From TrEMBL:
Organism of provenance: Spiroplasma monobiae MQ-1
Residues at the active site: H68 (proton donor)
Annotated positions binding Fe cation 1: D8, E39, N40, H175
Upper taxonomic lineage: Bacteria, Bacillati, Mycoplasmatota, Mollicutes, Entomoplasmatales
Claim: Metal-binding is one of the keywords in the record: yes
Keyword field contains Metal-binding: yes
Domain of life: Bacteria
SUPFAM superfamilies: Metallo-dependent phosphatases (SSF56300)
Signal sequence extent: none
One function term, GO molecular function aspect: metal ion binding
Protein name (Swiss-Prot/TrEMBL): Metallophosphatase
Any Pfam family: YmdB
Length: 254
C-alpha cells in the first residue's frame, strides 16, 4: 500500500495547491490512503466544517490536527459526529473528540493516531503514557502517527522508543520540511517534519510584515495568512504485504 501524508495545510494558499495537485499525485503515485494535517486550514488556525468537507471531497481518508484544533468554535459542534477528524490523544481528557482510530481499508486495519509534544507547547499529558495505552492489545495491521511537536529531538526520541512497534511516525507543527526521512533500524518510517502546504512567500504561513513588526517591537500583532503561490509538502510511504514500511520519500510540489 502507498500512503500519502501531507503536512499542515495553511489557509487559502494551502487549500488551492492541494486541490490543484492531489488528484494527479494519487493517480501518478498509485496512492491508496491519504492522511492530511488540517489544523491550520481555516484562515491559518483551526478547521471549520466547510473545510473539513473540502478535504473529504478531495478524497482524504483521515485528518489529523494539533494545538490549534479548537481555535474555531464551530469545530466543537461537529467533531464528535465524525470519526476521521482527530485531535491530539494526549490533550486534556475532558476535551471532546478522539485521538486515535482504526479504519478498515482494503482488508487491512489501519490505525491513525495523533499526539502532541510537550516541549515549548501548550500543556498536554505525557505522550508516552497515552501511547502505551493506545498500543496495548492493539490489533491493527498498520499504525501511523502524526506527532505534532516543536522540538525535533522530542519527535525523534518518541519515534525511536516505538521503533518496530508502529509503521510510521511523521512530525508536524514547525511548517518547515526536514530532509531526514528514513526507515529506523527496527522498521519504522520517520521524518521530523512533513513541512507546510501553504504560501511560499511567508513566514510559516503568515505575512512577513506582521511577523517582522512583532519581532522588532515586541508589540502584540495579529498575524494574517499570506496569500501567494502555494507549496505542497508531505511524504509517500510504501508498506509491503507484511505491513512493514519499506520506503519513505519526501514530496514537494509548487
Amino acid at each position: 500500500m502507498n500512503f500519502l501524508i501531507i503536512g499542515d495545510v495553511y489557509s487559502k494558499s494551502g487549500r488551492d495547491v492541494l486541490e490543484k495537485h492531489l488528484k494527479n499525485i494519487v493517480e501518478e503515485k498509485d496512492i491508496d490512503f491519504i492522511i492530511v494535517n488540517g489544523e491550520n486550514i481555516s484562515h491559518g488556525k483551526g478547521i471549520n466544517k466547510n473545510h473539513y468537507d473540502f478535504l473529504k471531497n478531495l478524497g482524504v481518508n483521515v485528518i489529523t490536527t494539533g494545538n490549534h484544533i479548537f481555535k474555531v468554535k464551530e469545530t466543537l459542534d461537529f467533531i464528535e459526529t465524525v470519526d476521521d477528524l482527530l485531535r491530539p490523544a494526549n490533550m486534556n481528557s475532558y476535551n471532546i473528540g478522539i485521538g486515535t482510530n482504526v479504519y478498515e481499508f482494503n482488508g487491512k486495519k489501519i490505525r491513525v493516531s495523533n499526539l502532541m509534544g510537550k516541549s515549548f507547547m501548550e500543556h498536554v499529558n505525557n505522550p508516552y503514557e497515552v501511547m502505551d495505552q493506545i498500543i496495548k492489545d492493539d490489533k491493527s495491521d498498520i499504525h501511523i502517527i502524526d506527532f505534532h511537536a516543536e522540538a525535533s529531538a522530542e519527535k525523534l526520541a518518541f519515534a525511536w522508543n516505538y521503533d518496530g512497534k508502529i509503521t510510521a511516525l511523521v512530525g508536524t507543527h514547525t511548517h518547515v520540511q526536514t530532509a531526514d526521512e528514513r526507515i529506523l533500524p527496527n522498521g519504522t518510517a520517520f521524518i521530523t517534519d512533513l513541512g507546510m502546504t501553504g504560501p511560499i512567500n511567508s513566514i510559516i504561513g503568515a505575512n512577513p510584515e506582521e511577523v517582522i513588526f512583532k519581532e522588532k517591537t515586541g508589540l502584540p500583532t495579529k498575524f494574517k495568512p499570506s496569500e501567494n503561490e502555494g507549496l505542497l509538502c508531505g511524504v509517500i510511504i510504501k508498506v509491503n504485504e507484511k505491513n512493514k514500511a519499506t520506503e519513505i520519500k519526501r514530496l514537494q510540489i509548487k
